[in-house]
Major facilitator superfamily (MFS) profile domain-containing protein (Croceicoccus mobilis), 362 residues
Amino acid sequence: MLVIVFLAQNCAIGMNFGIYGTIVTALEAEYATTRTLAASGLAAMTLVMGLSSPLVGRLTRRVSLRAMMIAGALICATGYALLALAPSIGAVLAIYALVIGPGVCLLGVLPSSTLVANWFHGGKGRALGFVNMPLFVSLFPILTAFVLAGYGLEGVFVMALGVSLALVPVLLAVVDTPARAGCEAYGANAEAGPQADAQAPGAGPLLEGRALHGNRSFQLIWFGIGAAIGALLFGWLADRIGGRRAVVVQALCWTVPWALLLVLGANLPLLLVAAGLAGMMSGAIVGLCGVLVGSWLGAQNFATAMGQVYFYKVPFLFGAAPLAGFLFEETGSYRLPVLLHIASFALVAALFGAFRPRPLSD
């Protein structure tokens, strides 16, 4: 079950982020549009994901997770087919928002994390860390670059269509709960320990919009490798010291790559180190958030709570990039946005370090 969820999560999130950063320049050229519009597809997708997450969270308690995930894969496949035929950049953005966004929401984080919560009572941090390793964020920039060079944007979207359709037979093996398979959840008889308290949702790389080429491609690949390592590392850490403490460690560590960006300049090896460290912290988010939600609010409230979490993220997901762009235009550099990131992570560490949730009543 863990491998199936891993594939679903990577097809939903990893593939989209891995592809899109590589095709921004191609979109700009194909549709003779601005860089801003060409780079807005993922923002449109994540906006709709955030707005629809509360509804999807409620649906997980009423609809089969298997049916929901299969529907998500088929909706995504439909979206990629439409993208291959899109006549304008406006159509591309509309498809990402109205088709790909809902499809990813039905296929990705919420049902995937709910399945892990259903099947794992012990070792949940490691399980969520494995599921949220963004392997496809590293693989698909490379695949997309080759396909884009030979077959253009249409070929890239047909590739994504094929991957989504190939996932459907795999999803037929999904079983919502261990009881339906006649078995118990992993760790069902284990005592609750510090591992019961960690997870967090992850964001993909913020790319500059060039095709996979030169230094940026290496930075993206190192980001993806770091994210895969971070998902496992912080999942293990959450099981060892608890999710709340793991979030504090993660938030403090996250200040390091951002601080490096202030002093590195154009030194490629050090930029790769910063990209890997940033990926390591980003890869841990979804896993840590899920563990925290499960331990603080209980398994019975998990899906609904995760949906609310994603809804509350909307202003940050949709507003961060425009805010950074505005600050860059006003100040002439990204120094202020970077400092805001560092201050935000320090604040997160302080808040989680001080917060003590009330224990759930039996």
